[in-house]
UniProtKB/TrEMBL annotation:
Pathway: Lipid metabolism; fatty acid biosynthesis. This is Enoyl-[acyl-carrier-protein] reductase [NADH]. It comes from Richelia intracellularis HH01. Substrate binds at A98. NAD(+) binds at G13, S19, I20, L95, K165, I194, R195, T196, L197, A198.
């Protein structure tokens, strides 16, 4: 029943084969979606090659640079997307950034610059991309972003990213309230801890994973493909009545008191 045939899905945030966005891209492809990929470029063009090679088996329509801190690049990338695709149906926002030094130690010592960059890249980018992709969603659509429990609980070392994720989840609700009139649904998947490039910057990520393995009802954490499956569901007509929600894909950890 899960059928994404004929849907154009734009996936952001693939850095390597551990990326949650990679797990999502694979499951969207499996469900029949036609993929378009954007990645964070670097000066030497390494990411273009790396991401391009990784996604090749999924036969994407394009693989374009899109640094969300570069308004000009975002604009030109979406111009190309608008030219290549008659419309966008799905946007996967799967990116975040905080300075490593702001992901451990005293939260009260977070500098203004660390606050600004974490919120700009991890939170404002959802608003920015929802606007850009939303204007191409001529037949309605589905937007999914990735969050984490640190948005509603004080998780050791998550610090400024917890604030960014709280603002991200609030943004999901405001975007959903606005874009519902165009039949665009906006949801977040709150994933359990997974070893990735981004999570390796969070102090004690392995301890977090071990804790989840001990406490979560399913006695384990989740993997990228499980997040991909829930995301594919949210992007499909099976979830046509769901918007503005934060769906936990965390092996049940969030329900536990101790
Ligand atoms: N790994 C976890 O435990 C976990 C748990 C819950 C939620 N998440 C969230 O999942 C999302 C994906 O993270 P991940 O764990 O797969 O790590 P990842 O490092 O594979 O992905 C992060 C992505 O953000 C991109 N990015 C960073 N700055 C950017 C910019 N300026 N412009 C465009 N892209 C930029 C990176 O290139 C990378 O592709 C993030 O929002 C993260 O907070 C991760």
């Amino acid at each position: 029943m899960l059928d994404l045939n004929g849907k154009n899905a734009l996936v952001t945030g693939i850095a390597n084969n551990r990326s949650i966005a990679w797990g999502i891209a694979q499951q969207l492809h499996k469900a029949g979606a036609n993929l378009g990929i954007t990645y964070l470029p670097d000066e030497k063009g390494k990411m273009e090659k790396k991401v391009g090679e990784l996604v090749k088996p999924l036969n994407p329509s394009f693989c374009l640079p899109c640094n969300v801190q570069d308004d000009k690049q975002v604009k030109s990338t979406f111009k190309v997307i608008g030219d290549r695709w008659s419309r966008v149906d799905i946007l996967i926002h799967c990116l975040a950034f905080a300075q490593k030094q702001d992901l451990s130690g005293d939260f009260s010592k977070t500098p203004r610059s660390g606050f600004n960059i974490a919120l700009e890249v991890s939170t404002y980018s959802l608003i920015q991309l929802a606007d850009a992709a939303g204007s191409l969603m001529s037949k309605g659509g589905s937007i999914v972003t990735l969050s984490y429990l640190g948005s509603i609980r004080a998780v050791p070392n998550y610090n400024i990213m917890g604030v960014a994720k709280a603002a991200l989840e609030a943004s999901v609700r405001y975007l959903a309230a606005e874009m519902g009139t165009k039949n665009i649904r906006v949801n977040a998947v709150s994933a359990g801890p997974i070893r990735t490039l981004a999570s390796s910057a969070v102090g004690g990520i392995l301890d977090m994973i071990h804790h989840v393995e001990e406490v979560a009802p399913l006695q384990r954490t989740v993997n990228q493909l499980e997040v991909g499956n829930a995301t594919a569901f949210l992007c499909s007509d099976l979830a046509s009545g769901i918007t503005g929600q934060v769906i936990y894909v965390d092996a049940g950890y969030q329900i536990m008191g101790m």
